[in-house]
Amino acid sequence: MLYSRLLIPTLKENPAEAEAVSHRLLLRAGMIRKLASGIYNYLPLGLRVLRKVEAIVREEMNRAGALEVLLPAVQPAELWLESGRWQVYGKELLRFKDRHQRDCCFGPTHEEVITDLVRREVHSYRQLPLNLYQIQVKFRDEIRPRFGLIRGREFIMKDGYSFDVDEAQAEVTYQAMYEAYSRIFRRCGLDFKVVEADTGPIGGSFSHEFMVLADTGEDTLASCTACDYAANLEKAEAVAPNPRPAPAAGGEPYQEVATPGVRTVEEVAAFFRAAPAEIVKTLIYETEQGPVAVLLRGDHEVNEVKVKNLLGVTDLYLAGPARVEELTGAEVGFSGPVGLRLPLYADQAVMSLAACITGANRSGCHLAGVVPGRDFQPFRVADLRQVTENDPCPRCGGRLTLLKGIEVGHIFKLGTKYSQALKATFLDANGEERFFFMGCYGIGVSRIVAAAIEQGHDADGIIWPMALAPFQVMLIPISLEEEATRGAAFRVYEELAAAGVEVLLDDRDERPGVKFKDCDLLGIPLRVVLGPKTLAQGRAEIRHRRTRDITFVELDKLKDVLTAQIAQELHG
RNA sequence: CGGGACGUGGCGCAGCCUGGUCAGCGCGCGUGCCUUGGGAGCACGAGGUCGGCGGUUCAAAUCCGCCCGUCCCGACCA
Hints:
Blueprint: H1 21-28, E1 32-36, E2 39-42, H2 44-63, E3 67-68, E4 74-76, H3 77-83, H4 85-88, E5 94-97, E6 103-106, H5 111-121, E7 130-139, E8 154-164, H6 167-187, E9 192-196, E10 206-213, E11 219-224, E12 230-232, E13 255-258, H7 265-272, E14 280-287, E15 292-297, H8 304-311, E16 316-318, H9 321-328, E17 344-347, H10 348-351, E18 356-359, E19 365-370, E20 380-382, E21 400-415, H11 417-421, E22 425-427, E23 433-435, E24 437-444, H12 445-455, E25 457-458, E26 461-462, E27 473-477, H13 483-498, E28 503-505, H14 512-522, E29 526-530, H15 532-536, E30 539-544, E31 550-554, H16 555-571
Parallel strand pairs: 3-7, 15-17, 17-20, 27-28, 27-29
Antiparallel strand pairs: 1-2, 4-6, 5-6, 7-8, 8-24, 9-10, 10-21, 11-12, 11-21, 13-19, 14-15, 14-16, 18-19, 21-24, 22-23, 25-26, 29-30, 30-31
Helix pairs in contact: 1-12, 2-6, 2-12
The chain binds one RNA strand through β8, β21, β24, α12 and α14.
């Protein structure tokens, strides 16, 4: 295509609104423009990249035997009432009424719609397994959209849903999706890691997330340096410490110590000249089932997902200062488990302490020499903390390391959660009615575009992997005034285009510096420069965006060299 | 929603504390000349109800109040 005919509004300066690299560069390269918070226009170049991602996803889903469908974005409330999620989903679900005052929503996900479709159309085990997917606009009214395409409110997602006769078959499908996803992200040129994940509000029993490794990632993952264990931080298991002998019946009783103004773990540790690991902190949480206390070692951080899962609650938030005082009788900073009339949930590490320092539930006082199991008895003991750097691996005992990642894919085993809720059944070989075993599989298509930039950029701009680049080759004539250069540029352009190369000819009346800057900013993998000096030798210059390597090639070999290079980068 | 920052031609910003002479700079845009291997130069020119509403004042971009919008940090997720 001709540059002058495209709409590529590049920006010299960073827009004030963009912080994340991918957001800045997508704006600067003229690929997207914001319409409202978390809602973007895709300009021609941005759309070309998006379509590349979609094509890869489509090919690999089809290869894995999934069938493409297209479901409506607007959905009736009835289905959501039936599944129970109309009440549960919260404000993220964009709701509105149509002209007949019927409740509707803009689909954030499509379990209800797909299950409804399948329960109407699929009645026999002979039609299974069935795996349906779509690539479509989703809307989630995010609390805080950010980082451009990484967390938009409206975004493009590939969502797929599988239906199997039983758990074992569902497992086979899940594995096939796992492999298809791995192929997709590999083809997109992404450096990713697969981690075990919490299932969250989608529900189900088991799930994996596909994380693109990037420092700007919103997710933290724990990865073993020795084996292949990797998990989202919210899922990563902490290894139980060695058990401590049961506390002696007698022994030294605990003492109350006046600690005015000493509230935080750091302050308490300094006051008692103790390590944070010898302190037990008491967090007061509100839940829909009432307040609870969570006990953790002073050097550990609570994992609220684990707490939610243990308690079986969906609302969990720290109680405010007034509420803490009401429940414990003391200001924040002096809560403790001894004598506290709240259900106590203790992290397992707390229970292996021989003795610890805790709040006294009296302002300005702490207790020293408190023996867990003797002086207080938790209602439940479990793994409730976040793992930390160098924690032991729960599988092999090696060391865990923490990494940042962007979630680009998530696969779930749903089991029969939705098929039961929506009464979606089929007849098995024995003529018995059974619920479908479901799985669901999501890919953030537009997020991949951003993730690829987070991983592929330098000070000059984007560095697209060949598979995602909006164009494979940028052709830059040094001068359009000079007839020889101009003629050569158009001849090469026609030849490359005819050979199926995606080539962009920069035919603008600009100085070469401007074209070079824009070419780097746009991230086109291969740049071909045609100038009078090289043309006089019958050659062209090829520059590789990533390596910055420059080679000179005879004009009559140019097409072959380029097509070979493109093929090599696409198929490795 | 809690905490922070911000809103001035298309983009990036200054001016605001200390109200008046303040609507300005750079980039971009248009025209002409000139230039052509890393965002050139000169000249002329177009473009802004200073986010909105209300208040204080002789006078408001500037002070006060409310509202709207945007971004960043936390609770949600592809």
